[in-house]
Amino acid sequence: MQNQYVIGVDYGTDSVRALVVNAHTGAAVGTHVFEYPRWKKGLYCAPEISQFRQHPLDYLEGLEESIKGALAGVPEEVRQNVKGISVDTTGSTPVAVDENGTPLALLPEFSENPHGMFILWKDHTANAEAEEINQLAHHWDVDYTKYVGGIYSSEWYWAKIMRTIRVDSQVRTRAFSWVEHCDWISAVLTGDTNPLTLKRSRCAAGHKAMWNEEFQGLPSEEFLVELDPQLAGLRQRLFKDTYTSDEAMGTISAEWATKLGIPADVVIGVGAFDAHMGAVGAEIDPYTFVRVMGTSTCDMIIAPNEEIGHLLIRGICGQVDGSIIPGMLGMEAGQSAFGDLYAWFQQVIVEPVKALLGEEAAAELRKKLIPYLSEQAAKLPVTENDVVALDWINGRRTPDANHTLKATISGMNLSTDAVKIFKALVEATAFGSRAIVDRFYQEGVAIKKVIGIGGVAKKSPFVMQTLADVLNMPIKVASSDQACALGAAMCASVAARIHPDMKAAQEAMGSGFDAEYHPNADKVAVYQSLYQKYQSLGNYIEQYA
Ligand SMILES: Nc1ncnc2c1ncn2[C@@H]1O[C@H](COP(=O)(O)OP(=O)(O)O)[C@@H](O)[C@H]1O
Ligand SMILES: O=C(CO)[C@@H](O)[C@@H](O)COP(=O)(O)O
Predict the structure, then answer these.
(1) Rounded to the nearest whole angstrom, what is the distance from the C-alpha of residue 90 to the centroid of ligand 2?
(2) Which atom of ligand 2 is nearest to the CA of 298?
(3) Which residue range is the domain that position 373 belongs to?
């Protein structure tokens, strides 16, 4: 049987892509990307208060268009042999739903209300609520933050729920339950979005909702009511069990099978976060550090439970049994802004050009600017007196989440130009990465290999070389342009029982690596000294912020 196909659907921050893959060879036979139209217009967002919302219609239109587009050019034989679909999404990206599991923004009365929409991972409006969760958890009988690095983040589920029900009484009254994007969209494909029965992702629940077997599920009702009395009763309308992404959520609904033109028995896998399925796609194995490098970074490691499970790793985004590969401890860390820091600097330069010279000139500049700055920055020597910056333009995700922190650029004089600033920003993102690697080492998790995937890993040799120099470690880049979607396809192949487990799927479908960056011995020592400056600057800013 060499003619079975699976589809991986990967919802990123700006767009969703679908990838049709031969489940036996990993060969991609069709792909299509769909950009979220409402998001692209900036609707429902308020960056000045860190509010980032996405309308469920962007996701539904994206589901149909991306899969249809990916299947558009494939032979009928492929279409008829699609066996499974799995979906990954960003997260924590939850939404308030009614009794049927319908996001409130799909009901007429909430259609323009950002609080009835998905609250995107990078929305930091719930900083105060995250702090309240931390304060209470650290003084409760059981510290519910212990498996999420000891610090709850405003990027996560409970903080977002608390904030929303506080600021919007209509949403609070109408919200029956709350569902993560990866759970909802997978359930949509099965035609059954009942929030009481849909299979919730272990990955989302464990890393972002403080779910753990030790707690018999989510934090207790008493804890939640103490946090906010308005949370009373919600726990029992959420979930107790969670599922790993090798399992099936169900079978495709007749409506979606017809809409997509695929068989009625296609298996829909349990969903998970993009980075986690990306790590599967990048052929993660124990103690390999897989970095999904795009707008943000998500850093993934797996290790046998019996070797690492007894540790409580401080300051990361959690350690969850089976969140990446079933049976292994999955660990997550990351940076809230990586490519987004470069995108910010690009915007600083392009905006006045747009205002003065018009959109055409701005578009041309936007296309050329980062590649130009990278090319020029790569030619600069690295010295101990270089400009040093902090990468916290969107707060700090890890180590030790703190989304109130801000970025800084230091050490400029009249000779400092755009190229030197850009170099410092790239180095800042690499230093932020180094802080994460150091933390894993300090906490007893040794990293044996580094693999990069995602847009920046594929597009920027300059960033990757700088990272190798700063980490003083070689870094391989996965060949697939779509490692997250490929990982989702691998998960679909296991959920559809084509492969017995993730390892077998990785072996059959993995696409290998196409680049490797080795540290430049002459830069490693200077970077060590600049990294110390980065740390001192960070300590200073953190103290006086
Ligand atoms: N040539 C480049 N060098 C460095 N960064 C780049 C380059 N081109 C794009 N980027 C960055 O890549 C990021 C987007 O990454 P990508 O993986 O495509 O998206 P996402 O994170 O939404 O999945 C943006 O933040 C952008 O600044
Ligand atoms: O935080 C997570 C996963 O835990 C990601 O979904 C989030 O960083 C989004 O990443 P992308 O922007 O899609 O690269």
Answers:
(1) 5
(2) 8
(3) 339-435+535-544
